[in-house]
Amino acid sequence: xxxxxxxxxxxxxxxxxxxxxxxxxxxxxxxxxxxxxxxxxxxxxxxxxxxxxxxxxxxxxxxxxxxxxxxxxxxxxxxxxxxxxxxxxxxxxxxxxxxxxxxxxxxxxxxxxxxxxxxxxxxxxxxxxxxxxxxxxxxxxxxxxxxxxxxxxxxxxxxxxxxxxxxxxxxxxxxxxxxxxxxxxxxxxxxxxxxxxxxxxxxxxxxxxxxxxxxxxxxxxxxxxxxxxxxxxxxxxxxxxxxxxxxxxxxxxxxxxxxxxxxxxxxxxxxxxxxxxxxxxxxxxxxxxxxxxxxxxxxxxxxxxxxxxxxxxxxxxxxxxxxxxxxxxxxxxxxxxxxxxxxxxxxxxxxxxxxxxxxxxxxxxxxxxxxxxxxxxxxxxxxxxxxxxxxxxxxxxxxxxxxxxxxxxxxxxxxxxxxxxxxxxxxxxxxxxxxxxxxxxxxxxxxxxxxxxxxxxxxxxxxxxxxxxxxxxxxxxxxxxxxxxxxxxxxxxxxxxxxxxxxxxxxxxxxxxxxxxxxxxxxxxxxxxxxxxxxxxxxxxxxxxxxxxxxxxxxxxxxxxxxxxxxxxxxxxxxxxxxxxxxxxxxxxxxxxxxxxxxxxxxxxxxxxxxxxxxxxxxxxxxxxxxxxxxxxxxxxxxxxxxxxxxxxxxxxxxxxxxxxxxxxxxxxxxxxxxxxxxxxxxxxxxxxxxxxxxxxxxxxxxxxxxxxxxxxxxxxxxxxxxxxxxxxxxxxxxxxxxxxxxxxxxxxxxxxx
Length: 754
Description:
signal; 63% strand; transmembrane; membrane; cell outer membrane; 22-stranded antiparallel β-barrel; Plug_dom_sf
């Protein structure tokens, strides 16, 4: 079915062109393709005309560093952090908050992701598909309100993006063996007139590899005795395939826009580790040998149709969309344990298999009407609809375990497994319906531009969990949230302007928090039970920003933000005894307490033409981030929020040589997290990237880029406890220090326009 929909999206624009041959579409000039692959000048941040504070970055801003994914590109924009592995940029954390607080849009529309927190991994979209990336710092009534931290809008190339085509051919090199590993990256895009309208089509294939080395040292407590060490290799190897198409045509006196994008990720994750007792690497102290691999195939599909027509004294828009996310994973883990309990007859071999099949589909629609009320004011009204169906199946056969001779006996290769059985909370269906009406007024008077609106979001969720007791198998929740918002932009002069925004936003509960299944020993030695009666978190937020134009193309800005989050969802103790017996409990989640988030964001993007260096561009952004929340142990920051993120760099063009070079540096501050039974501190090393390019013909550019040139590392410290009482008493179960590192990645890419 998915393949048929995709082929339909690709063929429908061409068929529609023939059916509408009597009509033509009047459009502005498309971008010449030479301007896309050969810029010839520093590329700066856009200065948008939006009332809501928005930062906009065209692909050309990122392209010279040849990012592979949207996540790689986002590393260069203000306030975006990640808690991913080295060389990975998946869950974007705008203003350092959990990905569930950040709304990720594609062409202004929501897309489903695999996360139970409704987040979307931005590394699923190849950077080659994008036209620009927008960071929307506040909320408007005509957009989904689940954007407490803000929204990231990934705008894909449309039918007006190019006039002509280009081919991208390249090779990648990873430094994870004596001679390294090689891969390829290939892409092609073409845009032009087809029939009465304009068509854009593109395809991209790129190899992806993430080789890391990890080392862990485990102690009985901080500063205590060394218990064991673990040496680990972790290689994630795969290929991304993508295809996109867009067609714009005039139909019946209105404008029709059809678009589709499909992305497939094939990935194999291979983790191998060896543990040694007391940190001594010899056979006498060998503790475990572990082999943990995951075979992953993920498909993302998004199809959209938009039609706008002048009617009822204004303009009416009709939208219809379909988006799906399919994730299939097979994971196996084989582990040989030697002398773990100092008892020879208990040396053993264990094997586990897990099968994951997740399917998430969303059908969306909208009817919106905009009309002018006076010469200086207009109104927009509309209703947006989303219907989600999510099916999850996580099954596994019973663990295979049997004793083995003492080390170094060989391990069996293929143990016999029984039938696959659902894991607790692993087989469920989720049906969620949202109907969101809104009204928004906007106007412009002299130096002032403003908007104000009201949005009402309704959510009806039904979760059926096949692993829960029959009486609790089906859970329902429904609620409505009123979301006011207002923004204004005041021009102080031709170069200076001030923006102010106030908005209420919402974060819906995670699906696993709503599910009525009981997960044994999920919280340390204690169990976890979902709460179907959870209400969403809501937040009142304010942004105050100042922006100045520097010369003709430069921009400098500073923005202060504040969020007051209420009805925070946190773990609470039911008081019931857990499955592990005395001293353990069943925990659940509830809406408890409030939290505050605040910070200051500075960004600069400008050519140095004011000092006679018009071919040199510099950029700098720095965000200071902070927050406060009260949990079961007192005050802390929001989990995983880095205290700062810094980016700066430059590009320099040499027009007489047809060449350019540049570099960018990134550093992210420490992040702390605290949940029941575990506390984590995460630190990252600095990341340096550089490029050099040469135009070898009018329409050909060759570019060499290098990333992770400082061999960045990720360092984590884990404080682990058996239960909450031990955590409060600082009676450690284990203290672990883990570090992972990876080497540089190089790309040699040629872009040829035609």
